[in-house]
Amino acid sequence: MNLKERFNLSRFVSGEKPVDAPVVLNHRRIFILPTQRGLGFVVLIALLLLIAFVYNNNLAYMLAFLLASIFFIVILHSYKSLAGLVVQKGRANAVFAGEAAEFGVQVDNPGDMERYHLQITLQDTHSLAMQPQSTTHVMLYSVTQKRGWHQARSVTLSSTYPLGLFRAWSPIRFDLKALAYPKPANLDIAFPQTSSAQVQQGAGSKGGDEFYGLQEYQPGDPIKHIHWKAFAKGLGVFSKQYDGEQPLQEIWLTYDHAPGHNVEERLSRLCRWVIDAEQAGIRYGFILPGLKLQPDHGLAHYRKCLEALALF
At the top level of its lineage, which domain of life is listed (predicted)? Predict the structure, then answer.
């Protein structure tokens, strides 16, 4: 690392380039500055020296030099509170847009010294203390704003041990990211009526006590069964179905059949269909422009569909 890179201000805030390998905290990665308490301590030392000079008081000189020696010794202990720790990335879990992505971080203390008052920060701050030769796993959270890959920002490990006069910190950037699926639509929309949809008729009839779902309005459906919320949002006219319609056994969920005024709304509807179909145990095919997945169900198929929506 050349001199210009060493004194780049971004190193003090964001850390160095993202890495995959474990990071060992050393003199190059640990930064130290006085806290507000430390600056007050400096002012106190300066006042004592001023008093000692004005009144030629040896005891005041001795006290000022004693406090100054404590001040400089604390710098070393502040550095040692972080030095030697090993930080490495863990797993990242996929979430839906708007939820908090979860990032795992592992901190190892391979030395024989106990570490006190450690703090690790992503968006929120977690406090921890580590015994000698121990390992701690921490889950950090960062709120996602939109679908796609959500990159974890700098993870900062810090400490104000032992007297709170200095803050030692080390910002670390890992190549750590979580996939954010589209936010599912809040409104229940009937599955698309595709040519391969197979419907089993039950013994019940429309108007029963148990609500099943929605379908496009058909002439003759009772007006009281119309889903007025969907109509008010301009999504079309749908009627509520009760008892009579049993779950679809196989359907195709396609981008072209998803209602919405823009791409994000249509992906949101598709996401809701995928979730509902999986929960209902229906075999569902999935079609996006340039992608076609044959009908299936189960966790692997479910994840493939959601990942395709996230990366569309």
Answer: Bacteria
